[in-house]
Amino acid sequence: MGKVRAFTISFANTSGIFYPGQPVQGEVLVQVKDEVKIREIRLEFGGFAHVHWSESHGSGKNRRTVHYSSREEYFKVVVPCLSPPHGEEKMMLKPGEYRYPFQFQIPPSSPSSFEGGIGRVRYYVKGTMDKPWAFDVEDVRYFSVLNLLDLNPIPEAKQGQEGQDSKTLCCLCCASGPISGKHNIPVSGYVPGEAIQINAELINHSNRNCEIWMELVQSIRYITARKTRTVNTVVQKTTTRTVGKGDSDYWRGEQITVPPLPSTGLHGCNIIDIMYLWVLVCDPAGPAINLRVNIPIIIGGIPLVSAAQLYGNVNPMNTGTSAFPSPFQVFPENVPQPVYASFSTGNHLQNPGQADNSVAPSGDNQQDDTFTPQYPYYNWNTYDTNFKPTSF
């Protein structure tokens, strides 16, 4: 940085996790070792959603690349921290250490942070020391916003569901008997950290062995004016079981834990939509299309009171008073407070309660891929951190 020894942004809430309507407070630290000429020091507060992907069409000389993109801007506010005296365009900043406090209130309608392969919802504070005839000095600090979905007012979240389907395998001109699968859930709404109980059965009347498993699928729709693209990712999966030809399997007594995930719908964002499926999968031996029995479920940020009472008053990890955002009147009194953890298709569960305040020195608030948002995680069950999400 030359004459500038340090130029950094920090949050008073060291977790970097906030709720819509909550103020973001912090300071800019500036350390100057030699006198430096500046135009101003300013802060930019921003929140946006961005979707982009490209596709190749045609062949040979007619081959072309088509780009699809859309963007929403939730806020962009620029405020000065230090400006020259009235009527002046520049000023000299003498050697020393300077601290400039700031505060910005997140709009109440802001959607939750999200990072996907071709789309994201991201929030940032960008600081700039504007230097005439020289490269600016910049720092960017990203933070997570959690617009939590409360499952309790949603009637469908409290209701159970059942799914069933069957298929017949064909081999040349001969058809074997059908493969039938079904499963059910007692409720349709869950939160990260909560267990989904397995209650499934598969009847294999075919002449092939079958592998079966349960998986939790995140289905994301990326929306542009010209086209919509859906990306499905398996975010959690059981081990496989074998059902021999002519046999049946009644699967009871096991469970799978929901990893830290953004809520269904991504409320407040109009170009990214999220849904989840609880799926029984049957993979017959040999060439065949898998049988998939889907049940749509709702992932929220505030659990059903009945679920919270079932698990009891579970206390979150003790990580100090500054490690979490204040409840900010978000969580009901009869619901235990969650911890916070990161999860994405390329990043798995990090230590719950550990902050992830990644900084992009380049100042490019759209292309930095080191940041992963954090989501509430109710420490009710053990989550398999070794599981690797896969898209299909």
TrEMBL record:
* InterPro entries the UniProt entry points to: Arrestin-like_C (IPR014752), Arrestin-like_N (IPR011021), Arrestin_C-like (IPR011022), Arrestin_domain-protein (IPR050357), Ig_E-set (IPR014756)
Q: Where is the Arrestin C-terminal-like domain?
A: 175-304
Q: Which SMART domains match?
A: Arrestin_C
Top-level taxon in the UniProt lineage: Eukaryota
Please name the GO terms of the biological process aspect recorded for this protein, alphabetically. protein transport
Pfam families in the cross-refs: Arrestin_C, Arrestin_N
Region annotation Disordered: where it falls in the sequence: 342-375
Matching entries from Gene3D superfamilies are given as: 2.60.40.640
Q: Which GO terms describe its cellular component?
A: cytoplasm
**So what family is this one in?**
Belongs to the arrestin family.
Output this protein's name: Arrestin C-terminal-like domain-containing protein
Supply the source organism for this entry: Mytilus galloprovincialis
